[in-house]
Specification:
Length: about 210
């Protein structure tokens, strides 16, 4: 909610709609469930994942980064008001560099906003930050020319045109282009549809680094 009684409630209604209709957060919670390592959330936006984690008694340290400075400022304000423990938010261009991290990583609805040649670079950098026993959890549209694929592309473009997403979609990866850099980095992965009750072609990728012997 806004700090002022008659303040802008855009984030409030967006968050309610997102949490009420998007299967993303239950899927991510399930994917991270066996692991309590520190979490780096790349492209965190308003930081909803941090709130969901704390509301579900997940206490691992959380670091959210996003290129949108305005969203980061709003995430910081919301996190402070909610008194989120051990959670911080920073403005970072993930396509240029990532902060040092050793634990688990979330990369949710980010890949399609990068050009094709930048996607495997980010996947390798994210995978390099996954500790033994940690997980890289990705939610992405996979290009397969299905009706769901086309619906997702149109919706993403509209989100950019109305100003919610500051960066327009650049390239939608296919399954092979996501799988290859993660396997090369030594991660074992599973891809499962994450449609829920939505018309979108969203998939959940869970990639795990095994414990050292």
């Amino acid at each position: 909610m806004p700090a002022q009684r008659f303040g802008n409630r855009r984030d409030y209604y967006y968050s309610r709609g997102k949490l009420g209709s998007d299967p993303l957060y239950p899927g991510v919670l399930g994917a991270l469930a066996p692991c309590s390592l520190p979490l780096l959330d790349i492209g965190c936006g308003l930081g909803l994942l941090a709130h969901v984690l704390r509301q579900n008694q997940r206490t691992q340290p959380y670091h959210g980064v996003d290129i949108d400075a305005d969203k980061i400022a709003r995430a910081q304000r919301a996190g402070a008001r909610a008194a989120l423990h051990d959670a911080r938010f920073d403005c970072v261009d993930a396509s240029a560099s990532l902060p040092d991290h050793h634990g688990s990583v979330a990369l949710l609805d980010v890949l399609q906003y990068l050009p094709a040649d930048a996607q495997p670079v980010l996947l390798r950098e994210a995978a390099a930050r996954v500790a033994p026993g940690g997980r890289l959890v990705i939610r992405t549209t996979l290009a397969d020319n299905s009706g769901r694929d086309r619906t997702t592309r149109i919706t993403d473009m509209l989100a950019h045109l109305v100003g919610w997403m500051g960066t327009r979609p650049r390239h939608y990866p296919d399954a092979a282009s996501v799988r290859a850099p993660l396997k090369a980095a030594g991660l074992q992965l599973e891809m499962t549809p994450l449609y829920g009750n939505t018309p979108f072609n969203n998939w959940l990728v869970t990639a795990e680094r095994g414990q050292r012997a």
